[in-house]
Specification:
Length: about 425
């Protein structure tokens, strides 16, 4: 019999809250095991975020067990067997063992089960079909541990069948490969993704967008994106010609400068050619307002940074865009200039917000009203004129100088 490691002593498993959920279900006579990402990541030595639990308890029985233990219980996905148990403010998704009865490529009708192998068999990848009991014993019904050790992302059973159950698994296959895969792309899985690629059109923009954004920030996003392109999948998802070299250079620059792996900015680097692309992608993928703003800003025809940009000119860009927008601009313009992150000029441009922070503009509209400007459009016009003078002074003019200039502007015919 294959020897499996124990997760006894794992911080997330040893938490009093986690053990309390297990104890509540056990006290009511039900079996329960942690499942999926928490077990997978713990075995890989990666951080664990959410703890999901599978149980033989039916949803109503889970709710009853939680109430007896004085825990909150919210039926967040009860038709699929999921109850969110809340302990000390921390949520735990507790889901009844199940099997798929009907699938249509987007959603499933399930029947509840008491069979752990049956529950494992309906999951997507072998490395996600690992379970762990309250005492840390690992249960591996489908030999997923071997794939996990090899960092091999492999569908459970027939890849075609798994994908037909939910076409989002095409994107998840590449996203998991980008996040966890070290072995080569599983060929049976890749061929099934290509064969069933038309199914992606059945999915909502929200689901595709959410999965794509996770993929773009995964550790091996560059390789996964290139593999998707080679297989002819990427253009279908983006509905445009991807800019692979720009994406690769951009991710490398982000890593070199230890910049956060912003998914919207990576999407801009990959797929935005002109401003219209930004709007189209945001609508197609149902991106958030913040993500849409990043795409539009990336494509805007505003100030650009060049190797010959003076520090004074760069400070103006910093003022116009703010520190975060400025850093996004540096990364995009560096890649478009085909420069390297270790180039001294670009390093200086990148470090500008820390070296020379721009002070806030010294005046506000109320200051103009206080010296006699009637509230209304003229306040804005004078403020813009004053701001331009302040920028031309290299941000040196203080409130006294600017107020004096404002008084002269008020008196001007």
């Amino acid at each position: 019999m294959k020897s499996l490691p124990s997760l006894a002593g794992a911080e997330w498993l040893s938490r009093r809250r986690t053990q309390a959920v297990f104890a509540a279900l056990a006290a009511a006579g039900h079996d329960a095991r942690a499942v999926g990402g928490c077990v997978r990541n713990a075995l890989m030595g990666l951080p664990v975020a959410d703890v999901d639990i599978a149980t033989t308890a039916l949803p109503a029985e889970t709710i009853a067990a939680a109430k007896v233990a004085h825990m909150g219980a919210v039926p967040t996905g009860i038709e699929h067997g999921t109850v969110t148990v809340v302990v000390g403010g921390a949520p735990y998704e507790v889901t009844t063992l199940r099997r798929d009865v009907v699938t249509d490529g987007r959603r499933a009708v399930v029947a509840f089960s008491r069979d752990w192998v049956e529950d494992a068999s309906r999951r997507d990848f072998t490395m996600n079909a690992l379970y762990c009991s309250a005492d840390g014993a690992v249960f591996d019904p489908l030999d997923g541990y071997d794939d996990l050790v090899a960092r091999r992302v492999r569908f459970i059973g027939d890849p075609v069948m798994r994908i037909r159950e939910d076409y989002l698994r095409i994107l998840r296959f590449f996203r998991f490969h980008a996040a966890y895969g070290m072995a080569g792309l599983d060929q049976a899985g890749a061929l099934a993704c290509v064969r069933l690629r038309a199914g992606l059109s059945q999915l909502s923009g929200e689901r595709v967008g959410a999965e794509l954004m996770k993929l773009l920030t995964a550790p091996r996003a560059i390789a996964a994106v290139e593999e998707m392109f080679d297989l002819g999948l990427l253009a279908d998802i983006l509905a445009s010609a991807p800019r692979l070299a720009r994406f690769s250079g951009f991710v490398s620059a982000q890593n070199a400068y230890a910049a956060p792996p912003d998914s919207a900015l990576r999407l801009a680097a990959l797929a935005v050619h002109v401003a219209e692309d930004a709007v189209r992608l945001a609508e197609r993928l149902r991106l958030s307002g913040e993500q849409r703003s990043v795409l539009v800003e990336a494509a805007a025809s505003g100030p650009r940074l060049r190797p010959e940009t003076s520090e004074r000119e760069a400070r103006v860009v910093l003022h116009r865009l703010g520190p975060e927008g400025y850093r996004r601009r540096v990364l995009l313009d560096l890649v478009d200039a085909r420069a390297k992150p270790d180039d001294a000029v670009w390093q200086q441009l990148w470090s500008l917000p820390e070296r020379v922070p721009i002070p806030p503009f010294p005046l506000a509209g109320r200051d103009l009203v206080a010296i006699g400007v009637a509230p209304g459009p003229r306040v804005g016009l004078i403020m813009r004129t004053l701001e331009n003078h302040w920028i031309e002074s290299d941000f040196a003019h203080d409130a006294v100088i600017l107020t004096g200039l404002a008084r002269r502007l008020i008196l001007a015919p």
